[in-house]
Amino acid sequence: MAQIKAKRLKKGDVRKEAKVALIRILYERGYDREQIMRLFNVIDWMIDLPKGLEYSFLQTVYAIEENQRMPYINTAERVGMEKGFKLGHQEGEQKGEHKGIAGTLRKQITLKFGELPTWADERLIQASDEQLDVWVGRILTADSLEGLLGE
What we know:
Elements: H1 2-8, H2 12-28, H3 33-46, H4 51-68, H5 75-113, H6 118-126, H7 129-138, H8 145-149
Helix pairs in contact: 2-3, 2-4, 5-7
């Protein structure tokens, strides 16, 4: 049932509601903690939510858990999941921003100097956020690729 719902539902909020409904059914059918954990993992794998809805989904599941007075995760697990979610979200944003800046810089370099040689591509891949920021500032005034990237 989860797989069918996942294939049919495209909007994030609708997917979240379907996922919550399936979790609610697990409790209503009286499954024990271990069964709920195994089925929850399968449902979680099949119905992927946009990052912005994951926290809201977990809060809803916690509310269901409290209403049923049958926790599928203990407090330590819950706190760990919340910490992991927050850290993962921040880390994902940072990696995405880094990739975006590197990609834009790569396009600008290609437009100004032509195709990137291997050494230049390696420099971009290994660059820190600070180094990318310096190169972004220099791209308009650089006379050569070597002058820009310092090779």
